[in-house]
Amino acid sequence: MGTRKKVHAFVRVKPTDDFAHEMIKYGDDNKSIDIHIKKDLQKGVVNNKQTDWSFKLDGVLHNASQDLVYETVAKDVVAQALDGYNGTIMCYGQTGAGKTYTMTGTTENYKHRGILPRALQQVFRMIEERPTHAITVRVSYLEIYNESLFDLLSTLPCVGPSVTPMTIVENPQGVFIKGLSVHLTSQEEDAFSLLFEGETNRIIASHTMNKNSSRSHCIFTIYVEAHSRTLSDEKYITSKINLVDLAGSERLKKSGSEGRVLKEATYINKSLSFLEQAIIALGDQKRDHIPFRQCKLTHALKDSLGGNCNMVLLTNIYGEASQLEETLSSLRFASRMKLVTTEPAINEKYDAERMVKNLEKELALLKQELAIHDSLANRTLVNYDPMDEIQIAEINSQVRRYLEGTLDEIDIINLRQIQEVFNQFRVVLSQQEQEVELTLRRKYTLIDKNDFAAISAVQKAGLMDVDGHLVGEPDGQGFGLGVTPFSAKPGKKAKSKKMFKEQLSTSARKEGASSPVGGKDLDFSTSKTQLTPSSKEGDVKDMLMRDRETSSIEPLPLDSPKEELRPPRPSTPPPKPVAFEDFKNERGSEINRIFKENKSILNERRKRASETTQRINAIKREMDVTKEALNFQKSLREKQGEYENKGLMIIDEEEFLLILKLKDLKKQYRTEYQDLRDLKAEIQYCQHLVDQCRHRLLMEFDIWYNESFFIPEDIQVSLKPGGSIRPGMVPISRIMSLGEDDQDKFSQLQQTELPEGPDSFSFYNAKVKTEQKHNYLKTMMGFQQAHRK
Length: 789
Ligand code: ADP
Ligand code: MG
Hints:
It is built from 23 helices and 17 strands. The chain has helices at 39-45, 66-73, 75-81, 99-103, 115-128, 188-208, 259-283, 296-300, 324-337, 352-376, 389-404, 415-443, 452-460, 477-481, 490-509, 539-550, 576-585, 589-639, 653-709, 713-718, 732-736, 740-752, 761-787, and strands spanning 5-6, 8-13, 24-26, 32-36, 52-56, 59-62, 87-93, 133-145, 148-151, 167-171, 174-178, 183-185, 217-228, 235-245, 310-317, 341-342, 348-350. Strands 2, 6, 7, 8, 9, 12, 13, 14, 15 and 17 form a 10-stranded mixed sheet that branches. The longest helix is centred in the last third of the chain and has 57 residues, at 653-709.
């Protein structure tokens, strides 16, 4: 494989009693043939003065039996086809020179059978010799006449281009003829029948369609596919052997021809000259484009000419003086062919089905190995199968709890689980990013500059800054619209929205709204630039936003009551600002404390930064003054012409002190500047922390508020109080597994009250679990709906 090889070119001389001994001479090695033309003949035959030619080929076959011809020309090509190499054997020559005799032979006499039947025999014999492989053989027989394709093995009696328009198709696997029948043959006899049928069709077609069979190219193809019987072997090989009986190569005199003959002559001359062009191009290693598509013959043989194939050309010539002109032309063709190099390569493919099966086997084996390994390592049995939704949800919950800090570590079970943990980290991260983005969008939104009504409403309410940006944050999205109470009826939302709109028109009309930042909202559901006011609940966020710059949250009592002590739920929910104060005293106390702490740090840093800036400016001013004084000194010195003593600079004491001072100032400046830079980075970081805390505080409040005043009691039972619940954050384990108390109750129940006794335990257990799962999903869906923007 990979070695370059020349096309093998042979000459077969048709036996004749009238052999031109004086003109045709064979070399002793039977590989060369010399032609000598007598003077008197030269005039009429060739125009140049040359009278002698010598052709060196791979073999000259004269008086050779069909047997010897096969041995010399075809045997190796066929043998290699079974190893995966494509092969092409072509017979070239003038009509009557013996192409068909060589290729097909006589059908009456077994001894005179040609290359075709012998190749089939060899293929089947070799298959018998290779029991290790399952080898299939298919055949097709194509005829190309006047650039039309005919299927010589078609079951239709008369086939023409109008009946089955065949086309030559190229794909990555190679070239094939669409519409050409390919016949599976399991034994020699079947193959022979097909060959004979093809020959018969060829003759019949030549009569019925009035075509001269010597004017057509015939390609008999044997397709081989060999799969190893060893199932672990995933590779298989394919190959094809093309046996080509070309149309007569004689130059037809166009002048004397007309009609059908002229057409045939044109087509044959063209296709054979295209064949030659393609072959010459193939022989030229610098040529990268080979003109295969110029005619049907070269196109159909594209992957069988040169390239990765074994290729043999057999030139049939007459041995008679009268045919010398054509003989010369044929021999020239043969010697040009001999120059072509090919690089035979095995056509190897992968059996996808086998690969899957082998991988499955391997997988099963490895699972067994793992099981053994686990039991040897005394590990509880680990399931290595892909995870289901519930297992993934459990990991998601673990990751969230881990991030919240309520779970110390995530136990490592297997690789698949580790991968899923990382995956869920990513999921949670992207959800949190979305949440932050959403919050930001709620806080700052642009108003469409063309929406004058909205702008004037906002301006009147004092909400617009000079750039036309909305100051602060719109509200109601989080409190009014975003969290629809769990028990809300469908109509409720629409109604409340309408109410907000009415409020907008009143508040917009009112001169100088009471709060500078309150009472605004953007209705995301209708248009991103439309304004709707929120309910008074918006004041909670406004308060927080005011905190952003002024840090005015009042201190909280250290022993703020815990949520367990929460008073019973009131019949009507308190307004949000009031509830928010409550929240800060109970569940939100910790986060509120952190929020305040961070903010005071932030303010302190801001103060320091501003002090540093002032100091830097003072230093800068002093530096400028010092520089000016220095310059003054310098100009004085220059005027006095004190540059003397061979280029040495003489500086007086005053100037020297100024230089020292400037140096010192520069140092101070650099240190302060560095401090300021550090402070700025710290401020940025603190600001980020403060924002995060604020966001968290609001979100926790949101959840707390809904949980306290809107979620039905029965659902609250399953959501154990104390955990922060948000969309997708209910730890599934909390719902999927019974709480400790529940577990006790259940085991008591199991002993005492199970109607069918302890045996029914698993049945009921499953039932309870299913119901729990169902409830969980219901809850989740409720939350998601409520939190969807
Ligand atoms: P082609 O196909 O090149 O037109 P054929 O194969 O039809 O030529 O040969 C023309 C005739 O010559 C046929 O009758 C064939 O049997 C005979 N013939 C050709 N070559 C040989 C050969 N080597 N030995 C015996 N007969 C031959
Ligand atoms: Mg023929």
